Structure formats: C-alpha cells, structure tokens
Amino acid sequence: MKQNEQIKKVLPIKALFLDIGGVLLTNGWDHHARKRAATNFKLTLAEMEDRHHLNFATYEEGKLTLEEYLNRVIFYQKRLFTRAQFRRFMFAQSKPYPEMIELVRKLKAKYGLKIAVVSNEARELNSHRISKFKLDGFVDFFISSCFVHLRKPDADIFRLALDIAQTQAQQIVYIENTPMFVQIAEGLGIRGILHTNYRSTCAKLASFGLQNDEGVPHETR
Q: Are 132 and 138 a contacting pair, CB within 8 Å?
C-alpha cells in the first residue's frame, strides 16, 4: 500500500481518458433513445432492436455508414416518415452534462493535461456530437471506435490510446460509466474512475491529485 502511495507521488497524472456517452454527454443512441424513436415513429421496438443488435458492432466500428445502418434497421420497408426526419430525431437525443465538460476544461487548464476520448460511437453521430457540443475545444484526440475500427471491450483500443498519448499508463486516469471497461483499462495499468455522478468523480479525481478549485457542489446530476 505504501509503495502504491509512493508511485502516486512520483508519477503525477498527465492525461485524462474519457468516455463520451454517460460522462460528457448523454448516450447517443442507446436502448432508451431507440425506445423513444419506436414510440415517436410508431415502429415495432422488438423488431427494431433485433435488427439493431445484428448491426450495431459493425456500425460503431465505422464499417457501415449511417445510411447503410438505417437501410438495414429502419428503411428495409416503406415508411411514412423520411430518412431526414429520423436522422434529426437520432441527433436530437444527445444532451450535454455541462458540469462535467466544465470540470474537464478546468482541470486541463490547471494541470496541463492531455485529454483523450476513448469511445464506442458511430461516425456520423460521433462527428455531430463533437461539433454540436464543441468537444474538440478541449479534447486533444479522439480514439473513437468509428475512426480506429476497434471498440471496447477490445483492450487494443486502450493500447492504441496509450500509443497516441505517449504517456505512461500509471499517469493516466480513465473516466467511464461502464464497470467492465474501467476494469479493462485498469488491467493495462491505467487508473480508473467508475463515473456515477459529478460529486463522486470530483472526489476521486482529487484523490489522484487533480483538485477542482471550486470544490464539489452539494447536488449531483
């Protein structure tokens, strides 16, 4: 235990790896969003889900365009709505967590951190979210599944992120809301934070030496 404490002091944190969905923004196209879509467009949810699950890994790995995905999952038969209407609905499901975005911005400025996204997202939706919420204003590089053709839980996506960051694993904190993905990162020596809310993540970051000057608010998101 003492040895671990010494390592923390000797090796300060130099980079943050972040998930997008569930950390910086709401999930882009999860089961809840698809359920809302089924209700809004009067689709059969079970059939939509079956088709989605057959295609989503290939879609998130950047091997299907959004149009190809929609062809397979939604527009394999005639619909009473247009592709443009459905795309707008998909994109509108994304909402920001402003307090988390601001936290990362402040920590980057204060500690000179490298900021990297390690995320499973499809290309068009990922690009929309980066642009809409100005994530490229503080993220240095995006290791998105659609760009690198790897997706979590493949540990290689984290290895690639380490290569790009050129930072020792022990000097990186990864903030993620999926327990398995945190464990995979930790297996490579990266320090993990299982994100559940702003308050607890601030406290865990502070334990790694990344102190938010404004402290932690009483309310969680």
A: no
Beta pairing class for 114-119 and 191-194: unpaired
Q: Cα separation of 218 and 22, whole Å? A: 20
Q: So what CATH class is 31-92? A: mainly alpha
pTM for this model (two decimals):
0.88
The dotted CATH code for 2-27+96-207 is 3.40.50.1000
Spatial contact of 49 and 34, defined as CB atoms under 8 Å apart: yes
Helix (H, G, I), strand (E, B) or coil at 172: strand
First-last CA distance in the chain? 33
Question: Domains of the chain: which residue ranges?
Answer: 2-27+96-207, 31-92
pLDDT in tens, 70-109: 999 999 999 999 999 999 999 999 999 999 999 999 999 9
Phi, psi of 18 (to 5 degrees): -130, 140
Encoded amino acid at 85, one letter = Q
Radius of gyration of the chain (CA): 19
Asked if residue 43 lies in contact with residue 70, where contact means CB atoms within 8 angstroms, the answer is: no
Backbone angles phi, psi at 109, to 5 degrees: -65, -40
Tell me whether strands 172-176 and 141-144 are parallel, antiparallel or unpaired: unpaired
